Amino acid sequence: MSLNDFVSLIIKHIYVFLKIHLAMNVPIVTLTTDWGDRDHYVAMVKGRLYSSIPDVRVVDLSHSQDWDSVAVAAKIIQYGCLSFPAGTVHIIDFCEDLAKRNSAPKIYRPVPLLAEFNGHYFLCCNRRLLEASLNADCDSIVNLPMPEIGSSDADTFLAYSLFCDVAAMIVRGAKLSDIGEPAAPLVHRSFLRAQFDGNVISARPDVIDHYGNVTLNLKYSDFKEYCADRTFRLELEFQVGAVEQFKYVTMVARHYGHEIQGNLVLTVSSTGYLQLAMNRGSAAELIGINYSTVCRFVLGS
To answer: In this predicted structure, what is the pLDDT of residue 19?
Structure first.
């Protein structure tokens, strides 16, 4: 190898190293909202982030307006936000339907929070959502000061008027104690888990996705422990028109294509929970399942 070739090779390796190093140090901000995709809100927030944080990478996780509950939104944080590298800032703007809660206050005023959890930073006004999503104590949590009265979109669009600026402060290295006042610790909220009486496992839907796949509140690891090498039969009762029908599932498949098109299949979701699905169809529509449906696993001897 000539000297010129050797120098060229060294320069190439240095270039690749610097490219990877710089890519790993690019600040990331994720957006998880219920704003939809037809209005100007996403564009406003992205514009402000790109204007205030050099080289930022803004990632849309979801802007769905069809979330059923805090439990569903929490899955995006647990399996979406926390899969990003430490140092990522997550802006979350999810307006829970307070009318569905008996304990909901008649007048709701947002309380913006900044929480640090395992190196991630969460900007959110929904304390219940954070409590449902983070399965351990936060490293730190502070209340954020509200924008001054009279400023543009002060209370109505905090993701724009407050969270973007706070995200820029975090990226620049500001400490939480310099940004807000200490807040009350989060109280971890655990959702209903599957029940086991020794012979029957009673599970409920945890998430019904837009494919009609039904993820149950039963971890596959717990299911295997309950079964302890026993056979099982999942009993499903539903109606098609005026006709009552029954479906039985007796095995866990490795993938959706294990059954022929149109048949129910029990498999394991990417999050490690049991999931009812249908090859090329909607399991939820077929059996009319909803969040109150009980799925009974009867164990053999």
So the answer is: 43
What does the block give as tokens for 101?
Answer: 């809660």
Neighbours of 281 (CB within 10 A): 16
Residue indicated by tokens 């900044």: 114
**Cβ contacts of 126 within 8 Å, gap of 6 or more:** 70, 92, 94, 95, 96
Per-residue model confidence (pLDDT) at position 104? 52
User: Which CATH number applies to 195-299?
Assistant: 2.40.30.90
> What is the reported pLDDT for 239?
60
In the predicted model, residues of the chain with pLDDT beneath 50 are 6-7, 15-23, 98-101
- Measured CA to CA in angstroms, residue 194 lies from 49, 131, 214, 220, 229 at distances of 42, 20, 14, 11, 19
Closest CA to 121 of 74, 157, 163: 163
Please count the helices (runs of H) and the strands (runs of E) in the chain.
9, 16
In terms of pTM, does the model score above 0.85?
no
From the options 3.90.1150.10, 3.50.50.60, 3.40.50.10790, 3.30.499.10, give the CATH code of 3-182.
3.40.50.10790
Task: State how far the alpha carbon of 192 is from the alpha carbons of 24, 144, 195, 203, in Å.
Answer: 38, 31, 9, 9
Residue that has been written with the tokens 């498949």 in this structure = 253
In the chain, ranges of CATH 3.40.50.10790 domains: 3-182
